[in-house]
Each structure stands twice: as structure tokens, then as C-alpha cells.
Design brief:
The protein is α+β, with helices and mostly antiparallel strands. Helix 4 (187-203) runs antiparallel to helix 5. It has helices spanning 35-38, 48-62, 67-81, 187-203, 215-229, 279-283, and strands spanning 2-14, 17-31, 85-94, 97-102, 105-113, 118-126, 131-144, 169-181, 235-247, 262-265, 271-277. It is globular and about 75 Å long. The protein folds into two domains: 2-129, Urate Oxidase (Roll), CATH 3.10.270; 140-281, Urate Oxidase (Roll), CATH 3.10.270. It is 25% helix and 40% strand. Strand 6 (118-126) and strand 7 (131-144) form a beta hairpin. It contains six helices and eleven strands.
């Protein structure tokens, strides 16, 4: 049991310059005894309102140096403070505020919310067990208008999809990775590096791009690049929910539409998912 959607803004001041972190936290506990469920005995139950207040107090006292560290702080607090807690799980996601720039100059106290993917993390710990940390990005919308196709796929009497060697590749990416047992990582630096890998693998070189033969191959390329460049990542899950576009037929309007006006196919939409990890992780 626990408390969901604990939302707050943490404001940090350094002289005239302000820094913000707006987050949403879900904190869940499992107690050493299920007596509150089986017997109606609440003597071990930490009220969810208390859980919420603890999260807010930790934000006040410790700040939020990174989402991962804040999730770790939550786990550590419940494990060290309450002997009746057998398991704790903390999920934290961030509102994507970025500092506002005016003519290239960063503003000291103004910010803009930019929907370029939502950062999140998750930490969990069992008593006498290791602290495990996950992190990720979701709702990251990506598009490239060429260098994508889909050919040579299996066909039977139910197949109506034509082969395409030049199409728009568009989708919404969910990506989650595991650091394994928690260590003293620079979580902010690692997250930014992984995000850069995702964008590079999706788009390819800026002057020419890179051909994608399928959504599945693009997902795998993202995972392979992350694993090759970020040794702290042990396993990475990626889900790409696809958006398809159809070219509008304008012949009746007396116009030739050379893939210049397209409409999105709202539903149904495709989805490609893959989990990839280092061999030693799966052997363990």
C-alpha cells in the first residue's frame, strides 16, 4: 500500500538565481505482517498521509540533487526508520521545466515547460537486500520524414499493406533501464548521455541520417548504442508506439501530392517492444 501522485515543486535559491524541480512521487510499502489485511489490526500501519509528509520533509531537508538520489533517500528513510517495513518502492517523475533564455542569456528565475520527454526513476529495496535503481524517459515523441521503410515482410491472403522504401517514421518512445545494484553514480550525467544516445540512434548523422528498415530495428539500435556507451546500464527496455501517416489523395482537386500533405492514422496504431541486456545480467 502507499501514497500515489504526491506532487510538489522544490525551489532552490543561490543568491538571485533560482532552480526548480517539480516532481510527482509514488511511495509504496510492504510490511512484515499482513495483519491489517487479515485481522483489521492497524498497529503497524504507517498512514498514507504520513508517507506523503515524509516525502515532503525529505524534499525540504535534502533537496533533489537527482531524481534517482531522491528515490534512494525515500527508500533509505523508510528502511532505517520503521522496523515493520519489509519492502519499499519509490517512483519519481519530473515535470520538464527548462530555464528560459532571452537572446541566448539564461534567465535567473524564469522557466518554460518543454514537452521533450518526461524523466522518471524507480528505486526499490527489500530488508537485508540490495537497493535497486531504475531510470527512464517516457512520452518522447520522435519523427524523421525519410530514411525509413518497411519491405520484405511476410505476406499471406490477409496482407494488404504495401511495401514502402521511403516513409515517415514517427512514434512515442518509452525507455527504462536498470543500473543493477545501486552505486555512487552521477545519475544526472548518465541520464543526459542516454538521452543523447536515443536521439542519435533514432536520427543518424545530422547531414544524411541513417536508414531504418523497421521500427523494430530502430528500437534495437537505440538499445545497442546505449549499452555500448553507458557501462552502468545493465538492462534496457524500449517500447515504441508508432504513428502512421497516409498521403492525402488530391487528384480530384487537380493537384499532385508528392508526400507533402499527410494525415495521421489515429487508431489502431502499432507498437514495438524489446528488452535487451548484458549477458552477465541474464546469467545472474
Amino acid at each position: 500500500y502507499g501514497k500515489n501522485t504526491i506532487k510538489f515543486l522544490r525551489l532552490h535559491r543561490e543568491g538571485k538565481q533560482h532552480f526548480v524541480k517539480e516532481v510527482e512521487v509514488c511511495a509504496h510499502l510492504r510490511l512484515t505482517s499482513p495483519q491489517e489485511y487479515l485481522e483489521g489490526n492497524n498497529s503497524l500501519v504507517i498512514p498514507t498521509d504520513t508517507i506523503k509528509n515524509i516525502v515532503l520533509v525529505l524534499a525540504k531537508k535534502n533537496g533533489i540533487p537527482s531524481l534517482e538520489q531522491f528515490a534512494i533517500d525515500i527508500c533509505n528513510h523508510f528502511m532505517t526508520t520503521f522496523c515493520q517495513v519489509a519492502y519499499v518502492k519509490a517512483y519519481v517523475q519530473e515535470v520538464p521545466w527548462q530555464r528560459l533564455h532571452e537572446d541566448g542569456v539564461p534567465h535567473i528565475h524564469s522557466f518554460i515547460c518543454v514537452p521533450d520527454g518526461i524523466r522518471f526513476c524507480e528505486a526499490e529495496q527489500c530488508r537485508n537486500g540490495p537497493l535497486i535503481v531504475f531510470a527512464g524517459i517516457k512520452d518522447l515523441k520522435l519523427m524523421k520524414t525519410t530514411q525509413s521503410g518497411f519491405e520484405g515482410f511476410y505476406k499471406n491472403e490477409h496482407t494488404t499493406l504495401p511495401e514502402r522504401h521511403d516513409r515517415i517514421l514517427c512514434g512515442e518512445l518509452f525507455c527504462k533501464w536498470s543500473y543493477g545494484e545501486c552505486k555512487d553514480f552521477d545519475f544526472n550525467c548518465i541520464w543526459k548521455k542516454i538521452r543523447e544516445c536515443i536521439l542519435e540512434a533514432f536520427a543518424g548523422p545530422p547531414d544524411c541520417g541513417e536508414y531504418s528498415p523497421s521500427y523494430q530495428k530502430t528500437v534495437n539500435c537505440i538499445q545497442m548504442l546505449v549499452l555500448s556507451r553507458v557501462p552502468q546500464v545493465q538492462i534496457i527496455e524500449a517500447v515504441l508506439n508508432n504513428t502512421f501517416y497516409n498521403v492525402v489523395d488530391m487528384k480530384n482537386l487537380g493537384l499532385t501530392n508528392d508526400k507533402e500533405v499527410l494525415v495521421p492514422v489515429e487508431a489502431p496504431y502499432g507498437s514495438c517492444a524489446c528488452t535487451l541486456g548484458r549477458k552477465k545480467f541474464f546469467e545472474a
